Amino acid sequence: MTLRRGSTSIAARSVVAVASAAALLAVLGACSTDTTNTGSSSTTTVAPTTTVTAPPADAVITDAQKQQLCTDLEAQLSNWRVQGPTLGRGGLNILVQTWAAQSGVINLQVVQNRAIVDDITTETCSDVRDEAIRSLDIPDLASGLVGF
């Protein structure tokens, strides 16, 4: 039998499979508990558990956080006009991700509902929002966000 370069024989694959199965059994055997009673006492160590609680999804976004988003957007408007919609949309994503990451609560809210960015900017700085939408050639800010 002639093997081509880069090919693997069935026997070689079988050896690898058997070796992998043997290693898995060895690991499982090492992790199992000894159930024989030798008359000596034994101790059991239990690893401590940690609980991570997620922030509530309906946590309030402060006025300062809303204003920060508006300020950040306004600072980028001239860049987006020069760069054009394609590059500007990437900038919008970076801007919103950075703003949202500053607070885990905001990040969670944006992930669950991208339209929250439109709600905030409509309420806080509608003129900046309108100019961003025009510069980025998108129907709303939420549609320009990807990766959330």
Question: What's the helix and strand layout?
Answer:
Elements: H1 10-31, H2 63-83, H3 85-101, H4 104-112, H5 116-124, H6 126-136
List keywords for this structure.
148 residues, mainly alpha, 6 helices, globular
Outline:
With about 150 residues, the chain is mainly alpha-helical.
Give an overview in words:
- The protein is mostly helical and 148 residues long.
- It has 6 helices and no strands.
- Helices cover 60% and strands 0% of the residues.
- Helix 3 packs across helix 4 (104-112).
- The two termini are 53 Å apart.
- Mean pLDDT is 75; it is low at 7-28 and 50-55.
Q: What is the helix tally?
A: 6
Mean pLDDT: 75
Shape: globular
Can you count the beta strands?
0
Order of helices and strands: HHHHHH
**Could you give a short account of the major beta sheet?**
none
Distance between the termini: 53 Å
Fraction of residues in helix: 55-70%
Rg to the nearest angstrom? Answer: 28 Å
Task: Please state roughly what percent of the residues sit in beta strands, choosing from under 5%, 5-15%, 15-25%, 25-35%, 35-45% or over 45%.
Answer: under 5%
